């Protein structure tokens, strides 16, 4: 890390700044390390195989968990507690369509670059918890599909897959989400990372299916700040011809005039996404590309931590 | 510029499409409004603001004070009612208004409101019809020429049909007419009174006609003396023959009992009364002349004597004389010498034979004589001398001519020369010639209505202004012009030549002024060719109708401000917006 950034946690540094310091793999490690440094470790404790600590016996505790040796030596009953050994199967679904490969300002990462670094960091974080992590990349079709694995080489495979081509002219999340459900045979977690510039009904329908199957769903809605707040001028001109890179639709508009209406529409769309997804029990978070990587990481990891 | 979230813009456009349509309509309305406002401002409109007061107005009040408005209706003169209504209208005027009063005699009074009100109070009824038509036109011109936007004409009249017989065009003014309510009173009037002939010698007759729905009693007076009384039925003519003792120019009148309209209860006439002229007929004048003079003598129209000579030309030695052409052409030379000796500017020329008709041109005319033909006449040749009249022509040439003291006939009075002596009208014509042309000339009578312009008789130097029966207060008006306006009061006035009366001017109201029938309001309004003509017979409606125009305020500046606001709003609204998406 640079001198300026060395004294700070990587998950809280400006994403573009930290991304410029190294390859995605390195950046992901810095981010995860910084994230874990700030995380108060409170792993779920239970009665798995790895011993964690003792606690006094309380009526109702199962007798089989009493440490009889201590009871014999100290004549007091204590219960042996074990650190839970989880084996969550998580699949990260990443939108790599052309709309993701855009940034409103050169000082920021593209939505795709930002999302790829979030994917790498999240995968590393989950794998360090011995969760199985898979990856599905999609645009107008599924570009990559890595089944969830907890093995040590899985993260590198994921990082390598992130470098596969994408940038298709359409986002078809339905196929990707179907594939994710297929890749996770039992209850797990699906993390959809996308700008959600797609048909919401398809997404909602498939999220609903995933929830019926018992999966936890996390949707990270990636937005460039310029997509939330339209710039007042483009190249000094108030008038602009806006072109959708995927559909090719051209829309001439006077920026100052449409800003308020656009802002209201975007906020309404985000609110609809939020209401639709949270009503299904899914977690929905809006992440702008100027937010430190720790923000989406913390949101996704918090969901993970609520799972058994 | 690439922008992935164009779908949000599209959605915003869809969601705001209605707003956009409204915006476009608003833009269009704003632009149209701006254009219309500028165009309206260019027209310099004014706003008739509500509230109290009225716009500065030029009001011309026409007060009909013709004779008919002196009639008593409802217990008081019609003119008094009209004056009250006119006063009410003028009292509504303010300091910014201009007001004129025009009466039926053409008098115009303007100025301050108090002065006009005072003038209204002083208006008196005329003795005649006046000229209501001219007064309305003049009032309309006064209002129309005033430098004000609001111009009103208010006519206060009794609506007499004969005064409103024709359409009147007072110009581009708003016209209001107030007509007294109700029906006119029943009127009896003397509509005609004449004395014939003009000169009584001393016998004559008086003819009169009376307008009355039933019978009426009348009185005929000469110089205030009752000459006769009687009763006349409706549409019956009064004919009175008399040989009064008065001499000279005499004023007379035919009078009825007083009724609601006093001004036409008496009608005046004038007559000259004197002794019958004496006539001397030469033997050679012919039997027809002698017989005719005998008839006139029997009728006391003439008396035998040495006054007027009736003689062939060649035998004439003095004037006045009725000169006859000689029956023998050989006497023509002697006749012309006699004419030259008498300073008569006519000569007898070559005899003309062959029948030709006669046309009488001057009084005494022979209207009922039938066709008069001439078989023998002498050509009458004019020479230098005093002016003369041609009384009759034959074949387009003078046949009977007249001058001071003479009447010359171009044919002998014999049936072989002309059919004139055997016509029934010959004797009256001869009597008129002797009494009117050849006797001492007392002057003539002119009949007129009050204010009418009449010609000054030749030689008249003054007008005696004493009306009939008021000689004690006689005064004399010197005459200098060739014409004069008849006095406003009815009566008989005498022209003076030096100290002598030289004719009469008889002033009577127009007979039509006695017909009091009124037009209804609709017909009355239809007579005026003006803007927004309304007729009322209700005082309250009239008063609310005059000065009714609300104050005007120019709208140019507010309209331009509104146009500017519209343009500014348009520019703000049009400064940005959505456009349709294209692929």
List the helices and strands and how they pair.
The complex is a heterodimer of chains A (308) and B (583).
Chain A: H1 3-6, H2 15-19, H3 24-38, E1 45-46, E2 50-56, H4 68-74, E3 78-83, E4 89-95, H5 111-128, E5 132-138, E6 142-149, H6 154-161, H7 173-183, E7 189-194, H8 200-212, E8 216-223, H9 225-228, E9 239-243, E10 250-254, H10 255-279, E11 283-288, H11 294-306
Parallel strand pairs in A: 4-5, 4-7, 7-8, 8-11
Antiparallel strand pairs in A: 1-3, 2-3, 5-6, 9-10
Chain B: H1 6-15, H2 17-42, E1 46-48, E2 57-63, E3 72-73, E4 76-77, H3 78-91, E5 98-103, E6 108-111, H4 113-122, H5 132-144, E7 150-157, E8 174-179, E9 189-196, E10 199-200, E11 204-211, E12 216-222, E13 225-232, E14 237-242, E15 248-256, E16 266-273, E17 278-281, H6 287-298, E18 303-304, E19 308-312, E20 321-324, H7 332-341, E21 346-360, E22 373-382, E23 389-394, E24 397-403, E25 406-409, H8 426-438, E26 444-448, E27 453-455, E28 462-464, E29 476-478, E30 483-485, E31 491-497, E32 500-507, H9 521-527, E33 531-536, H10 539-545, E34 552-554, H11 556-574
Helix pairs in contact in B: 1-2, 2-11, 3-4, 6-8
Structural notes for this entry:
The complex is a heterodimer of chains A (308) and B (583). Chain A is of the alpha/beta class. Helices cover 40% and strands 22% of the residues of chain A. Chain A folds into 2 domains: 3-40 and 87-306, von Willebrand factor, type A domain (Rossmann fold, 3-Layer(aba) Sandwich); 50-83, no CATH class. Chain A contains 11 helices and 11 strands. In chain A, strand 9 (239-243) and strand 10 form a beta hairpin. In chain A, helix 3 (24-38) packs across helix 5, helix 5 runs antiparallel to helix 6 (154-161) and helix 5 crosses helix 11. Chain A is elongated. Mean pLDDT of chain A is 78; it is low at 1-6 and 40-49. Chain B has 583 residues and is α/β, with parallel strands linked by helices. Chain B has 5 domains: 4-45 and 555-582; 57-184 and 516-552, von Willebrand factor, type A domain (Rossmann fold); 189-275, Immunoglobulins (Immunoglobulin-like, Sandwich); 278-438, Rossmann fold (3-Layer(aba) Sandwich); 444-502, no CATH class. In chain B, 24% of the residues lie in helices and 33% in strands. Chain B is built from 11 helices and 34 strands. Chain B has a 9-stranded mixed beta sheet. Chain B has a 6-stranded mixed beta sheet with strand order 6-5-2-7-8-33, sandwiched between helices. In chain B, strands 10-16-15-12-13 form a 5-stranded mixed beta sheet, with no helix packed on it. In chain B, helix 2 packs antiparallel against helix 11 (556-574) and helix 6 packs across helix 8.
